[in-house]
Design brief:
two-stranded antiparallel sheet, 6 helices, globular, 76% helix
């Protein structure tokens, strides 16, 4: 449970940075408490999407992994962020990704920030 909470907080921070940097990714315009709750909820949705759907997509796109030498991973990550935006809309969360290119840039930023924070926090498992 502790690992899940830390991973969710790291994803929340990474999503917040991506929303701050990329103009096509928007987070709620409320006060900081509302934004914090929204980004935590979006991080949970993002974690569920990556846990449930990403392995299935990676399995069926295995030939594309081989052909693109793994570069299709960037596209899959962008699609997972876009799917998180769609699910957030359905859950009435104020998180929106306006297109593929902001999703691609946002997924790169989220990957870099989460990697850096995971390196800083360390893995206690």
């Amino acid at each position: 449970m502790k690992h899940f909470a830390i991973k969710t907080l790291i994803n929340a921070a990474a999503i917040w940075v991506a929303a701050w940097i990329v103009s096509g990714i928007t987070l709620s315009n409320g006060d900081w408490q509302h934004q914090t709750l929204t980004v935590l909820a979006v991080a949970v949705v993002f974690g569920v999407v990556n846990w449930l759907i990403k392995p299935v997509v990676k399995f069926f796109s295995f030939p594309l992994f081989i052909l693109s030498l793994g570069l299709i991973t960037f596209v899959i990550n962008a699609l997972m962020l876009w799917l998180t935006s769609f699910a957030s809309d359905k859950l009435h969360l104020d998180f929106h990704v306006t297109g593929f290119w902001p999703a691609l840039l946002g997924s790169l930023i989220i990957s870099l920030v989460s990697w850096g924070l995971n390196m800083a926090v360390g893995d206690e498992d």
